[in-house]
Each structure stands twice: as C-alpha cells, then as structure tokens.
Amino acid sequence: MRTFNITVPDTAMAESIREKIDNLNKPKGALGMLEELAFQICMVQQTLTPRLTHPCHLLLGGDHGIEREGVSLSPREVTWQQMKNFTRGGGGVNMFCRQHGFKLRIVDVGVDYDLSTTQGIIDMKIARGTNNFLYKAAMNDMQFNRAIDTGSMLVDECAAEGCNILAIGEMGIGNTSPSSIWLSLFASIPLQECVGAGSGLDKRGISHKLYVLDEALQRFMAIGDLSTENIIRYFGGYEMVTAIGAMLRGAERKMIVLVDGFIMSACAMAALEMYPQAKNYMIFTHSGDEKAHRSMLEYMGAKPLLSLGLRLGEGTGALCAYPIVDSAVRMVNEMNNFSNANITKYF
After folding, report:
1. Pairing of the two strands 282-284 and 165-171
2. Quick one: which of 238, 249, 237 has its CA closest to 3?
3. Which of 157, 172, 179, 230 would bridge with 266, disulfide CB 3.0–4.6 Å?
C-alpha cells in the first residue's frame, strides 16, 4: 500500500491565532464551537486569514457481497438506481451540493451494474461489488491498493481545480455491516452494541444481521491476522476504502475534510488507525441517532457539529454542516476587534 506523508500542523502560529480569535469584539469563548473551528482551520492553513475555496463533494458508489445474506432492508439494485438518480439531480446530495456550492463528482468504484455509459458517472470500477465476507475477504490486496489509490487520485483532481475543503459521501447498500464490524474490532466494543437498524431493519431484522455478522467475525478471528490493513480489506467496501484513500490524501495535501455520518465516520476511524495525525484535518459534521455512531465518535474523541437524526448517507450531513464551517471562517476574517471598534476589553 502507498504511504502518506501526513504532518501535524506547525504549532508556531497557535498563540497568534488564539490571540486574534480572543480579541474579536465578543466575550471570550462566546462563539463556542465556531471559535474551535476557526482555530483548527487557521492551523491547517497556517494563516490568520483562512479561506474556503472550490468545495468539492465525492459521491462514491459500491455494492457489498454481505448484502446477499439479508442484512439490509434495501435490495442491492437500489445502489445503481440511486447512482443514476444522482446524475439527474434528484438526490438529497444533489440538492445540498447546489445549495452550498459544492462541485459534485459521482464515482462508480464498485457498483454491481454496468454504469460505464451513464453520462455524469465517473467510471473507476474496481469490481462489481465485493466478495461476501461471511465466507472470504471482501477484496484482495490488489483491489485494496487500487481503492486507496483511486481515492487519492480523485482528491488530486479536486485540488487541481483549487479545492481546499472536501466532503465525501457514499452509496452502497449493506455498508453499515462492515462499519459495525470495524467499530467492534478497532474500539473493542461488543458486536451487539455496534449493530443497528441500518436502512430500517425491524427488531427481527437486526437480530438476523447480528447473527450473520457475528458468524463472519468469528471466522475472521480464526485467521489470526488482526492488522489494521487486513481488518479494513477483509470487511470494507470499495466505496469505503476509496473514501479512506481520499481522506488520507486530503490530509496529506492539508485540505479540510468534512466527515459525514456512520459510514464515513467508520472510514475516518479506519484512516486514523493508520495515520492518527490525519485527525487534525477532519471536521466531524453529524451524529446520527444510533448508539453505535455515538460510540464511534467518542472512540475518536470527535465532537460533531450537528445532530439532526439524518441517516440518508450520501454525505448529506457534511453538506448541511458546511455553512457552520463557513461561518467560522467569516468570523475570524470579518469580525472587528476591541481596539478597532473602540470597545473596552473587559477580560
């Protein structure tokens, strides 16, 4: 697998950044998380006057072999049907990208359907869905490396257009299953606490999903290779591993990476298992209703910006949170300070 040179932002500017934020004409700390966001973005960009330029959104599609075991309420054909719908502008991701000025790239990295002639979809298919990880690894080493490289390449294309803030979303029926297993293995949380309703399973459906995933996990544990890369490769989807590659390349290129809900948080968690320093570049945008997602965020020490009960995927939580990030940048650039405003500094 390729390596990433991800550095921790230089702390030399930290004091001057904090001083600027604290001297804006407001009570110290009065703008709460906006101040934390502003500090983070200034540190990433190493400037007192940060900018957000050409925001891009990667929508990655892929199918999962484990879906064949009935672990999702939605059938796998929904993946390709929604991918086509996105090209017509009819998805939630389309609406939010239009609203907030994101350039949307719809990318097929593993959909179990021929989308190569569908206008508006970038064809980077690695395979038509992963293997069923109940019986074997979801992907082999070559496919894993290709997914990582694909994510990196997509980020380079965004950066070439001037992008310095990136959102990532996914479309892949069944991808809550690998996310749950990753959480259980990386955070040492019992699997039953990591498995939820996904796209809407009832109690009986959740019980069946847990049974299947527990069986898959026990078979994996018998193999004995619990390395981070093998855990990711054995269970992950192509859209998920591509997202990991995009997150790591984004951090390497010192871009802001907006992390969406449960699936993308799982990808961020996996990325941080490999490169913990990448967290400096991530903004966690949304916490879903499921306990497992909250546990995942807690494990990473992440403070999400929103809790709207979203479970659509597609990166919609990240897009909804973008105006908050924009407000943090505007705050540090456009608010006056006590001296210029002729206001007594009282702290």
Report:
1. unpaired
2. 249
3. 179
Give 122's strand partners. 107
For the residues of 193-210, what is the DSSP string, one character each? Answer: GT---TTT--HHHHHHHH
What are 292-303's pLDDT values in tens digits?
999 999 999 999
Is residue 110 within 8 Å of residue 237, measured between CB atoms? yes
Amino acid in position 220: F
Tokens of residue 31, six digits: 């703008």
Q: How far apart are CA 15 and CA 326, in angstroms?
A: 22
Q: Is 339 helix (H, G, I), strand (E, B) or coil?
A: coil
Strand partners, 316: none
CA distance 126 to 135: 20
The token pair at 121 is 């979809």
For residue 77, the one-letter residue type is E
Q: Is the pLDDT of residue 119 over 80?
A: yes
Q: Residue 131 pLDDT > 80, yes or no?
A: yes
The DSSP code for 306 is: B
Say what the alpha-carbon torsion angle 139, 145, 148, 152 is, to the nearest 10 degrees: -150
CA distance 173 to 75: 7
At position 45, the amino acid (one-letter code) is Q
| CA-angle at 92, arms to 279 and 196, nearest 5° | 60
Q: Which residues pair with 123 in a beta bridge?
A: 108
Q: How far is CA 126 from CA 165, 243, 336, in A?
A: 26, 14, 51
Catalytic residue check, 314? yes
How far, in Å, CA of 11 to CA of 334, rounded?
24
